[in-house]
């Protein structure tokens, strides 16, 4: 089977991914409702959370990117205006942020979180589907099975200590060979469809509204036949 792990299906279809209840560290504010799909080197996790209620956090214990898939989540950092995240929208909470988190019944989100030894610059950074995308590098030519795509991105958050970056990306169609993925990557598809191939020939199809995680080193291919856009988190783990 493909090494891409499904975290959410927009159509509510069952997932083959195995989740386990668990906290991300002893101070995890979502400890009671977090389900972890993957945890690996570099102190990173991919997870899903069902959360409702109000929580005040004096200092958020890690950096976490959230994408809401049901309900709405309001994040109010100290001294800042509230950020309301509805379905198919997201935000990054930086480690060390003081904030209030509020959600109604039935709120669910997928997430990718990373720990770090020192607090990063605190705050809440929204992810935008209508981001100001700028040209970015396509996949290496030697990995492509066809023409090079035109790719664009808008990286809105970087934690240099953990090599954790988040933002929005899009691309014209392209086909890439199965090869070890160069980094940990969380993605929530905003538009288009992608087929993720594995070495045994099996293929995982994902479309708009679906969320996935691919670990660094996992052998996976990519084929898209239409415009694809996504929110992403990437992290490079030293070998």
From TrEMBL:
Q: What InterPro entries does UniProt report for this protein, alphabetically? A: RmlC-like_jellyroll, RmlC_Cupin_sf, UGlyAH_Cupin_dom
The superkingdom of the source organism is: Bacteria
Q: Which Pfam families match?
A: Cupin_3
Domain (S)-ureidoglycine aminohydrolase cupin positions: 162-232
Name by which UniProt lists this protein: Cupin superfamily protein
Species the sequence originates in: Pelomonas aquatica
């Amino acid at each position: 089977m493909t090494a891409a792990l499904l975290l959410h299906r927009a159509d509510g279809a069952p997932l083959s991914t195995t989740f386990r209840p668990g906290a991300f560290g002893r101070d995890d504010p979502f400890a009671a409702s977090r389900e972890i799909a993957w945890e690996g080197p570099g102190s990173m996790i991919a997870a899903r959370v069902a959360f409702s209620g109000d929580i005040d956090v004096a200092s958020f214990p890690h950096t976490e990117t959230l994408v809401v898939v049901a309900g709405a989540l309001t994040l109010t950092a100290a001294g800042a205006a509230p950020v309301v995240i509805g379905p198919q929208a997201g935000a990054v909470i930086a480690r060390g942020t003081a904030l209030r988190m509020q959600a109604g019944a039935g709120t669910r989100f997928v997430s990718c979180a990373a720990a770090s030894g020192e607090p990063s610059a605190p705050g809440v950074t929204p992810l935008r589907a209508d981001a100001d995308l700028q040209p970015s590098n396509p996949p290496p030519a030697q990995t492509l099975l066809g023409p090079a795509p035109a790719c664009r991105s808008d990286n809105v958050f970087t934690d240099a200590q953990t090599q954790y970056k988040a933002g929005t990306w899009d691309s014209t169609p392209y086909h890439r060979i199965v090869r070890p993925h160069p980094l940990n990557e969380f993605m929530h598809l905003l538009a288009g469809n992608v087929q993720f191939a594995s070495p045994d020939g099996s293929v995982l199809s994902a479309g708009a509204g679906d969320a996935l995680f691919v670990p660094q080193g996992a052998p996976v291919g990519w084929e898209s036949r239409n415009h694809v856009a996504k929110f992403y988190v990437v992290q490079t783990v030293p070998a």
